[in-house]
Write a structure and sequence with these properties.
Two copies of one chain form a homodimer.
Chain A: H1 3-19, H2 26-33, H3 37-43, H4 47-67, H5 74-92, H6 98-105, H7 110-130, H8 137-154, H9 156-171
The first copy, chain A, binds a DNA duplex through helix 3.
DNA sequence: TTTCAGGTAGAATGATTACTCTACTTGCGT
DNA sequence: ACGCAAGTAGAGTAATCATTCTACCTGAAA
């Protein structure tokens, strides 16, 4: 992964984030990457490879931005992650999560679906770890996913809703379960 | 909206749900609609109109399936909606919400974004009404959106997470708010 | 000085696509 | 019997796109 290659990936990410995954043709991608067609194809031999490269690049950038330098206190860390996701949407993803967009644009593409899965699972694990709530990994991911989907509709209010739900989840001891069948707790509740 | 027209819309919905919005070409859509090319274009004069027709059709079908014959008790109604969303994903949308997919596939399309907004807002309103929690409309929508996004990853466990969050929200009296700045409550809390 | 790895610019190709058009059929009201 | 509204079947068109190919440039190592 040399320096030119990452510069290309960064350009590709910008292009796909700005115009989605269907619209930009190769020429537009080349303009965004600021290299010649030949070089572009040298490192990423098909359009699909370009999509994957852009997403890989974004994945790293996203995790860095969300999880670096979080507060140590689990509760505060959780709220901070949610706020940062809101900021990320504001500044970089106002049309919604790029990974979901990519899969939506090419639902038969297995490599893409796999990348989405890895992206979400790594995010969920790191969030659960930061919040010291491994037993609520899925619920925490659900809140963030919901936030990202609501963002285009409600902007900042979506963020406040997510914070409220997170607070409710932390406050909840599992007391008011739907119809019996309490959540299985082989793990300790912090 | 004559009978043939709705039959075509139903076929289009099936095609887009099965293969996404990019893949199917006009010929595939015609096969799904089971009409001639000429008739297809007569009622829906461009591919974009076909997409809109499919989504309109799905919108009606979705609301019908989720909200008809709900329990009267608000708490049970809420849980039942969540379960039905899970069933809907299982049987009809295993690749994720079709409205989000459509917008993701054509993010510059204003009519599509508008339709997405209407769809989500109507769903949110009806859910909040059924759960008798108008002050939590956004939080309830967030839970369902999160559920739909998590579904492809976790299937039924996503549903249980959504139920748990809903229960936590109902149990929560707004006590444990993030960092000061309590939620503004000009509306009464039920 | 020569060589060559690695870059640029952009034309050519072949496949695909949305959409249009022509020609033909069928069922029904008068 | 006839006309016609509304359907089918499918060939034709013009544009777009991903990918490949040709020709040229440049800077540093030998």
């Amino acid at each position: 992964m040399n320096e030119l290659q990452t510069r290309i990936a960064a350009g590709l990410e910008r292009a796909f984030a700005a115009h989605g995954f269907s619209a930009p043709n190769i020429e537009a991608l080349r303009d965004a990457a600021q290299v010649s067609l030949r070089t572009l194809y040298k490192y990423y031999p098909s359009r699909n490879d370009m999509v994957l490269a852009a997403l890989e690049f974004r994945h790293e950038r996203y995790l860095e931005k969300i999880f670096s330098g979080l507060p140590a206190a689990p509760r505060e860390a959780l709220f901070e992650v949610i706020r940062r996701v809101g900021q990320w949407m504001e500044s970089e993803a106002s049309h919604g999560c790029l990974f979901h967009s990519a899969v939506a644009a090419a639902p038969e593409n297995g490599a893409l679906r796999h990348l989405l899965q890895r992206h979400k699972q790594e995010f969920a694990q790191r969030l659960a770890a930061a919040a010291k709530r491994p037993e609520n990994e899925k619920e925490l991911l659900l809140i963030c996913e919901g936030l990202m989907q609501l963002w285009p509709l409600y902007r900042n209010e979506a963020c406040e809703s997510a914070l409220q739900l997170a607070a409710a989840l932390l406050a909840d001891d599992g007391g008011g379960q739907p119809t019996a069948g309490r959540r299985d707790l082989h793990e300790t509740v912090a």
